[in-house]
Amino acid sequence: MSLSRRQITQAAVASVPLVLAGTGTARASQRRRRTVFVAGDSTAAQKYADAAPETGWGMALPFFLREGLAVANHAVNGRSSKSFVDEGRLDAVLEAVRPGDFLVIQFAHNDEKSEDPLRYTEPWTTYQQYLRRYVDGARARGARPVLATPVERRRFDAAGTAQPSHGEYPAAMRALAAEEGVALLDVQALSLALWQRIGVEGTKTYFNWTSTEQDNTHFNPPGAIEVARLVARELARTRVLAHRDTRRLDAEIPASWITWPAA
After folding, report:
1. What is the pTM of this model?
2. What is the spatial distance between Cα 209 and Cα 130, in angstroms, rounded to a whole number?
3. pLDDT digits 0-9 by tens, 14-36
4. Alpha-carbon dihedral of residues 108, 110, 113, 115, nearest 10 degrees?
5. Confidence class of residue 263 from pLDDT cuts 50, 70 and 90?
6. Rounded CA gap, 132 and 125, in Å?
7. Which residues are registered as beta bridge partners of 102?
């Protein structure tokens, strides 16, 4: 389904949490509230009741950030760095960001689809070119861009060794982050190491394995929570956020905290 620019912009505005304020001081405080925006694909996206138990890591990120630091999750199923821009979604995000906000950018899963010209990008040329548009757009609005390498799929060889699945895209993003002086969350490397520690069978409890499907790309609540934990830890480690801006980094988060609203 195609959306008009007006519809996308309305959706972007609606996704930012609002608090009613009774005084001018409260309204001013609300205006200063910082927001972590997420631009990405289905691994991070908000899921709805018809998709449960599939869960995007962006749904769990607020559990690890202090109260008052909002998350506006604009990640959408099936999008690449290119199609997100071409559909006007980046423009909608940039219309919503304010000075002092953050834009976390995670793409590659769909950029890899060479058979689809609407989504495909080449790692060292068009992928980097599109990512620069996010970086430059955030900076132009006084927000801080943050590049996040793509979270790894569940893929093991016969010996039980977790295998990378994203080709040159993580390396291309790392190189761009270094060139542009952008904070990098190396979620690809961290998630690959996590899947290795958990193992072939253990990882089934983190991905969307159900009685009807065996999904090695998308997460269930425990998996989304652990990936969100990796993201939050990296935001603190790289000093994008102060440690006081994070919470529960080492705490157990109940899967029951995840909810799926009606579509």
Report:
1. 0.87
2. 33
3. 444 333 333 344 444 445 689 99
4. -150
5. confident
6. 11
7. 36, 144
